[in-house]
Amino acid sequence: MAELSDAFRIHEELSRILILLPSSLIHYSWEKILEYEINAHPNYYQDSILAYPLNNLMNEGQGVEKIISFLKSNSLVSARNQQKENSKRMIDRHNEIKNNFSSKDNGRYSVAQASVFAMVIQWIANFYIQNTLKIIEMILPD
After folding, report:
1. Whole-angstrom Cα distance, residue 33 to residue 17?
2. Contacts of 79 (CB under 8 A, 6+ apart)
3. Which of 13, 20, 78, 82 lies 20 to 30 A from 116 at CA?
4. In 3-state terms, what secondary structure has residue 41?
5. Beta bridge partners of 50
6. Strand residue runs (E) in the chain
7. What superkingdom does the record give (predicted)?
8. Within 21-72, where are the H helices?
9. Is 109 within 8 Å of 67 (Cβ atoms)?
10. Taken in order 99, 104, 107, 112, is the CA torsion positive or negative?
């Protein structure tokens, strides 16, 4: 979402599409959904796990303008800047830990090393994604 703050030229068109197309999002984590399902057993969980945050803007006269305002907001621009900084650090962090996984004498990595290295990279990527999501959650209204 934060990347959209940089895409000034498409703000208006994107805002119109977001309002005109039906949309929904799952507003619970998979852990929360699982907890609801377990607690409802043997019945089914009856409440909706979906939220429709943009659909309400269709009925408002200023819906497009509200989305454009959000896309240009200081908080989203700030989140985007933080995201860019995090991505710069991710590359440095990747290079730092690469030395922990020394290659063979021929400079290549073994298949066994690849899976461990991939797990570490995925953890680092997830760390930065989770931090970015936390930033976005701080700026998005409930």
Report:
1. 29
2. 1, 2, 5, 132, 135, 136, 138, 139
3. 82
4. coil
5. 26
6. 25-26, 50-51
7. Bacteria
8. 30-40, 63-71
9. no
10. negative
